[in-house]
Structure formats: structure tokens, C-alpha cells
UniProtKB/TrEMBL annotation:
Keywords: Metal-binding, Nucleus, Repeat, Zinc, Zinc-finger. Residues 55-212, 274-442 form the Zinc finger ZPR1-type domain. Its main location: nucleus. The keyword Zinc applies. Residues 25-36 have a biased composition (Basic and acidic residues). The keyword Zinc-finger applies. One of its GO terms (cellular component) is nucleus. This is Zinc finger ZPR1-type domain-containing protein. It comes from Coleophoma cylindrospora.
Amino acid sequence: MSSTQDPKPDGAAFDDFFDSIGKKAENLTTKDDKPAESTQEEGEDDQRVVDEIESLCMNCHENGITRLLLTRIPFFREIILMSFFCPHCNFKNSEIQSAGEIQQKGTHHELRLTTQADFGRQVVKSDTCTVKFIELDIEVPPGRGQLTNVEGLLSMILEDLELQQPARKEQVPEVWAKIEEIIKKGRGMLAGEAYPFRVSLDDPAGNSWIEPDQKDGVGKLARTTYARTPEQNEALGLSGDAQPDTTTDGDEDPSIHNPEGDDIIPNEVYSFPATCPGCSRHCVTHMKMVDIPHFKQVVIMSTVCDHCGYRSNEVKTGGEVPEKGTQITLQVDSAVDLARDILKSESCALECPELQLSVNPGTLGGRFTTVEGLLTQVRDDLRAQIFDIDGGGDAPEGGDGMESEARTNWNKFFAGIDAAIKGEKKFSVVLKDPLGSSYVQDLYKPEKDPRVEIVEYDRTAEEEEELGLTDMKVENYAEDHEAEGEKEEK
């Protein structure tokens, strides 16, 4: 295969550059076993597993050696491992960098640690990622990229804090005392004395990750995506190519369609200008209001960027906040049930106990589809993440970095979802929505649907806080606003 034919490898060709670590080691062993004559014949044509580059040491300004390893991580994507060593001053440094492109959206991961095994979960922290140990009240700003686990991440933070403690004790005793308290609490976490607690990774570039587990239920590991702000795009170097708005002097973009009148007409498509969260260029967002029978009106929004290919489809629900949340349980027994319309709002958690499937609120965003379509989307998203399938990549078994037992369990898990999608397995779908904005099509109206059960429940204090309902003021807010304005003028 000639690299000149395809300067930017894609799909299966990308595997030639980014093998898993196991394949790299196997390749190295094979080459070491070759006879000396064969090695001499191949000469420089041999592909080295680890590339070595002579580079300047920033500690003593002599020349050291930088080693580069291109590899891929199961459940994630391709990365570059870098290690530097200076033989003159023995300075060492190691870090990772993402080998892929900046993702279309930023990602936020939050893991709730409840057992000692959670400390062993692999963590990829890119150089644009912010790490927080929430209960410890510690935040690590973006910096050096790391490939480690949760225990290693917390240990390195505590070691960095301990480094200057003797000097702080003499110079600023009050600061020393506060940091010593944090270190003591952190050591207790490492010893398993402070469960549960949470760690979060927030990466605007979308290239950081916490290893998932098949046994994770709702509330264990949450992964959400979000549109970057203009400031975050600028920090990532994505704002420089933004195109200025050329619609001036009354010239209107022909793709923008705004019907007359202030009222939104159901089933009418509205288009309005927007900024692409992926590349910060001009794009168009389409909006349509749909009236769901026996439920409420929802807004379907679609954004497509012609410059970078960014696509987004979301469903937004409106209306007043109900006094109670709702839990909808659907028993799926036939192809008719698989074809039911289903609306999963952003605030809704999805569970299928028979399939061992749990989806946290916000993970998929708002979706209006069928039961079959929702399961298919969940399966495809999980399979792409777990088995490293990204637009043609050839890694159906998750790479050799995945343990055989874990690989078998994941294959069994996806086989169960496939059987459910084909109608070969009966299962239930549970939608728990604290805002009551989710919906399952009722096929027996006005009679009671025997396969659908709807139960109202009181929201917990945590749910009220997460939804921003605790501090929400719906009465006399205009008077309070005027009072605040008068105070500012004085």
C-alpha cells in the first residue's frame, strides 16, 4: 500500500498507522525473530514500532530523545503516546495527544465512584480537558495530556499538592492547613473511606474519555455532548476561518424562510441564520412545530453546516413545568409495539431491564422516533464507542486491549439488543422523566392501553436542583427586577 495515494488515511487504511498496542508488540517480536541477513536487506524500509526523534531538552538545553508511539485505545480512538528522556540531566516527561480531529461537540463525562474497582477505570485526559473531583472541591485546568486511570489521576493531584507543603507551612501556615485538609480527604478517598464521590472530565474538543462498564446503571457514568461557545472555539483555534456575514443592505440569504406574523404555525418549516458550533461559520437552522396527538406540541430542530459537515437533530419540548415527574413503562411484545412513536426528552432516563440497558438523562438529547429507531440509535452509538467503529474502521472485536471476558460480555449484550430490534425478544422500556415531557404512543385511545403504564412521582431534591427549579421564581419577578435596577442606579 502506497501512502502517496491516500495522504489522509481513513477507515481501514487508518489502522496501518494506528495499530493497537498488542499488534505493535506482536510486530516487534516478529521483527526481532528475523535472521540478521533479512534485517540487513530490508534496512530502512522496516517500519519501526516506536519512532525516536532527537530534540532539545528544556531543562538543560542539551539534546535528548523523544519517542513516539501511534496506537489506539479500545472504547475510544487513536492517540499519540510521547515520552522524552535527557541522558545529560535525567529529565523525563511523558504525555499523550489526540491523533484525531477536534470533534463537532464538546463532551462532559461524570463518573460516580462507589467501589474500589472504579479506581481502575481507564481515563484519557486531553490537553484541553478540565478535571474535577467534585466532593474534594479540586479542579485541574487544561494542561498536559495523560493516559491513566482514576486512581492515578487523583494520586498525581495529591502528589502535586504535597510537593510544596513544607515551604507553605513556614511561609503561609493558613494555606498549608487548608491544603493539608484536602490532602487528608483525598487520601481517604484513595483508601475507600469516602464513597460515593464523583470525578468529571469536561473537554471542549471532545477528545477525553472515561472507560464505561456494561454493568453501569443510570447515574453511574454520564456522558453528554454540548455545543461549544465562541470563546471555546477561539481557544481551540476554530474561529480564525469564520466567514463574515455577507447579507447586508437588506439582502437576505435565500435559504432563510420566515413566514409573516409572530405566531408559530404548526407543521410550517422555519429557517433562521445560526453559527455552526463545529467550525463557527454561517449555517442555517430549520425548525418545525409538530402537534403530538393526546400529548403536547414539540419543536423539531435541524442544523446542517455545508462547510464542515456538522449535523444536529434535536427535539425540544415546551409548556409549563408539571408538579410531578412521570414514569412510563411500555411492554414490547410484537412488531406493532416496536413501531410505536416515542418521544424521549433531554431530561429523560431510559432503561430496558431485560436488555441490561441504561441511558442517563441528556446522553442522547431529545429524540422523537419509534421504539425500534430509538433502540437502533442507542445500539449504534454504543457499538461505535465500545468497539471503536468510526466510519469504516475495521475493529469488530474492540481490539486486543479489551479482555476476552469483557469482549464476550459486550458481544452478548449487543446480541440481546439486536434480537429485541428484530422482534425476537420481549422486553420493557422505562422512561423516567422528572419534567413529564416524554411520551409513548397510545394505540387504544380513549380506552386504557394494556401495554403502557404511566405513574406520577414526586421529584427528589437532587432532581429539583439539577433542573434549576429550586431557585426558579415565577411570581412578582418583574417587580424584583425593577427593584434591583433601582439599587444599581443608587
